Amino acid sequence: MAENKTNVKTNKSSKKKSALGRGLGALLQDSPQKGNAETEKAANPVAGIFEIPLGEIQVNPFQPRTHFDKEALQELSESIAVQGIIQPITVRRLADNEYQLISGERRFQASKLAGLEKIPAYIRTANDQQMLEMALIENIQRENLNALEIAHSYQRLLTECDLKQEQLGDRVGKNRTTVNNYLRLLKLPPDIQAGIRDQKISMGHARALINIEDVDRQLAIYKRTVAEELSVRKVEALVKALNNSGEEKERPETGTMDPVKKYEINKLQQKLASHFGTKVSLKADAKDKGEIKIPFHSTSDLNRILEILELI
């Protein structure tokens, strides 16, 4: 009798465990499950982690990244050769034995370099627009992305994926103000955008420069920022002074001058002094009238200056 009771208890426990397993499976049917692509993709073609041959995977035609650092790719390849793939790539299934990358191209390319034959991958269902959206969002989440690359990715999500700014903020985990600040960078002149891309100035510098309406003045302060390695606070103060002087409408009699123009005159004065090998005085008023004085200390010094001017 004791033996029969034990068997009944065991059977009940087994049935209970089996039922619980089915319940979890129903709740987590989209959760990652280890498997083999050949044996499991027919039963579960849109969820799970599968080992897929590299030769069956096409690159993502919507990939927003156009450049992969060769040295970094080689380092990742060496790491994969030792450690394997820690984070699976994501693909969509096009047909039997045919897949297309959604995200993870660096891991995909590095795995090829490492000589792997298969790679672990999540299989998802996605149309072309979703492919683009997922690729762009993954790109945005990279740590080494500069502000301009983020801005371009945001713009593509708005235009090509037909998202509104609030929807975009939800997708990338940013508030609407932050998203808008990045998008405003695309209104800056090409030279300044290149400066952001090449990390000559930071996002903070760029946000200050956006507040200048005149393009020439923007460029003048940008060039000064790069040349003198100005801090964000100094650029903000310079922009504030510039905007305040514009609001007050300069009066010629006060001698007030546009800060950017004053900077340009000082730079020109330095160039003239270097060219003539003597101190040069360059003055200009708010109406762009002024004078240049080139002092000389002797007849020979005067002749030297005249020769430079090609007057003798």
From TrEMBL:
Signal peptide region: none
Pfam families listed in its UniProt record: HTH_ParB (PF17762), ParB_C (PF23552), ParB_N (PF02195)
Keyword DNA-binding attached: yes
InterPro entries named among the record's database cross-references: Chromosome_partition/occlusion (IPR050336), HTH_ParB/Spo0J (IPR041468), ParB/RepB/Spo0J (IPR004437), ParB/Sulfiredoxin_sf (IPR036086), ParB_dimer_C (IPR057240), ParB_N (IPR003115)
SMART domains: ParB
Start and end residues of each ParB-like N-terminal domain: 50-140
Residues covered by region (Disordered): 1-40
Chain intervals with Low complexity compositional bias: 1-11
Keywords, ordered alphabetically: Chromosome partition, DNA-binding
The family this protein is said to belong to: Belongs to the ParB family.
Record's protein name: ParB/RepB/Spo0J family partition protein
Source organism of the structure: Negadavirga shengliensis
